[in-house]
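Much of the work behind modern protein science is quiet bookkeeping, done one molecule at a time. The protein below has been through that process, and both of its lines are reproduced in full.
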Amino acid sequence: MRAKTSTRAQLEHSLNVAGIKLDEAVPLICEMLNLPIPQKYSPLVLAPHQKRKRLLAVLAGWMFGTASVQPLVLAIEDLHWIDPSTLELTQMLIEQSATVPLMLLCTARPQFRTPWQMRAHHAHINLSGLSDHHTREVVASVAARSTLPEEVMDAVVRRADGVPLFAEELARLILEGVGRVVAREIPATLHDSLAARLDQMGTAKEVAQVAAVIGREFSYELLHTVATIPEEEL
């Protein structure tokens, strides 16, 4: 309870500094964060679509107000996985930030198409894959004190195809002995790599599979309810 009270106090302070009216903003954001709404604020009686629209406006105003007090950098990664509401908020910030000291850094895979038009204050940077030389540096940094055979290093570079995450994952997989340091046994895709790692987890693999069906976030209680695994083992 003390933690939630502290969080609400920090929220009120941050909104107040940004010049946001607390009477509307606090109930909206507390509800979003699943925090109890302080009794001094009247609950907002709004239709769901109106509440969503007001919440997005409050969040955008909060960012702009904060940036007016002190220059602000906001990093948003993996736009290709973003939900519609967060994408709409991001678009509001991008389209209205020309006169505010707010810098947004957004990353996305090539297949993502931005719903906003490019403006004079926007910059679009295409990143190519890592070169073989840089991929080797990534693998070497993960391997640290271990020296991989040249055949294995070549296979990792070839399989990674310039993707740093895949190069790191393959290197870790090999160092843990999953790949047995044999070039032909190195997984061909990141999916195969993660599957190989799961295979090494024993009974925990079943837990991971059940959890994956539920989604990215879940409570222990829900997992315990749907998993056919003894509680002590779970």
Notes: Confidence is low (pLDDT under 50) at residues 178-183. The radius of gyration is 24 Å. Residues 2-106 form one domain.
